[in-house]
Structure formats: C-alpha cells, structure tokens
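Justification of computing resources. Each target in the renewal requires a structure prediction run like the one illustrated here; the chain below, 313 residues long, is used simply to show the kind of job we budget for.
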Amino acid sequence: MQILKQTTNQQKGIALIMVLLMVALMTIIATGLASQQQLSTRRTGNLLNNEQAYMYLLGAEDWAKNILVKDSKDNKTDSLNDDWATELPPIPVEGGVIQGKVKDLQGRFNINNLLKAGNPDAVNIETLRNLFIEKDIPVDLTDAIVDWIDKDLDPIATAGAEDGEYLNSAKPYRAANNLMASASELVLVKGFDYKKYKKIEPYITALPVSTALNVNTAEATQISMLSNQISLTEAEDLVKDRDKDGYKSVNEFLSHDALKGKKIDKNLLSVTSEFFLLQARSIIGNSKSELYSIIHRDQNGKVKVLLRSQRRI
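Resulting structure tokens:
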C-alpha cells in the first residue's frame, strides 16, 4: 500500500513537471512570436519610412529643377545671389523634416577638361598643376590622370600609367580609358590615394563635357589655379570685390586690377553654368536618407537629371 502511494505521488510529480515544461515552452513560443511580430512591424515601419523619405527627396529634386528653370528665365548670369543658391532650411513634413541645397558644379575645375577633342590639353593640365602646387601634390600626377581618361593604351610620359601599371598591382584592374564619371575615381589613378584626393576634392568635379569655370561661383582657390601669376591673396580680393550678383561678363572679370598683366585664357571662363548638384536630406521617423543629383540645364533652360545616388545615414 505504501509502495502504491509513493508510485502515485511520483506520477503526480512527473505530471506536474510535464505541465510546467509545457507552460514554459508555450511561454517561450508566445514570447518568440511576439518578438518576431514586433520585429516585423518595426521592419515594415522602417521600409515605409525609407520609401516616404525617398519620395520627399525626389520632391526636393523637382524643387531644384523648377527653380533652375525659373532662374534661366530671370537671369542672364549665374551667381551666388540667385534663388537656386539659397539653401532650403529644414522644412517640417509628415513624419519628419527635409532640407536641401543646390551647388554650382562649374564653380569647380572639371577634371575631364584635361582632354580636348581626345588629346591632352596643355592649358587645362597647367591649371590643374597650379592646384597641385598649392596643395603640395606632385605635379607629374597629371600625366597619370590624362592616361586614365584618354582612349589609347600608351603612357604620355614616364609618370603616366596605362593597363600595364594597374594589371601588375596587388589587386589587378585596368585604366578606365574614358572620361571620369566621378572625381573620386582619382583614388584609382597611379600615385594617388585618398589623402591626396581629399586635399583637392572641394575644388574639382567630373562632368561629361568640357566646361568653363564660372567666376561668379568659384572660390579663391579655383581662381588662383587659372594662372601661376595669380596669388591666393589676389584671388581672395577678386572674390571679395565680386558684386553680389557677380560679374556681368568675363571681360568685366578680366578687367579687375588684380588681373592686370596676368596671362589668362579667356576660354577657360564663364559667368553662366549648366551643371548643378542637389544635396538633399530627409529624416522620417528613424530613417535618415541623403540624395545627390547632378542636374544639367541646357542653354534653352531645359533641365534633366544626369546622375542620382542615394545613401542612408
């Protein structure tokens, strides 16, 4: 009788343990399902926020295009006093904020100007070398840049570099032998590295056609590049004396006292621009996104986006 009672108690204990295990297991499963549901909800929310943020960024792009079209009708020159140059402050939108600004890419030196009709252009090569001297970068690196963008496979000088140089590197690759799509390609060019690139990054760009420097939007460094006879101090004076609406013509710019007796190729200069960069940022919930759009406005005032890239912060 005593043995039977103990067996019964043991069976009850085992049953209780089984019940507790089942309860624990169900709790774990329920918690897991709840967590998975929360994760899925959060993921869905993030996706929706990302999509909403991108739509707002495209809205900013339309704003930039419209304001550039309007500017072409209102002004004969482009300067930092134009409406497009006014930074869009943070604007509240549903779920967050958006802001943006437009920059004139022709206020920078176009790295693709190193070629003219497919051949090295001595004037523009010298212009870039002036920047290299200012930033303490070896001037013969311009030869490697020319080889990177020209069509042939023959180095233009001993400091040049074609496929042979790059295929023998630790991670082989070929020279582009095409115009640069982005100035950041410089980090791939023989003799260049990220540190050198960052030294000149604010002063250069890469555009699909040869472009003139807009003297109304260029900074002092870009202006001093035009000639080794122009000091940075003189270039700063040119910027300081620049009217808020800029110079009305290239001749007006060249007539400045600081440029008397200086040899400058007039063909390098302009007071109008066709290429602009939109930088827009949107914050929707926890989603932060940036959009970079290169916009071309032709001489008839028609605009189109040439390149668009987005990144999440």
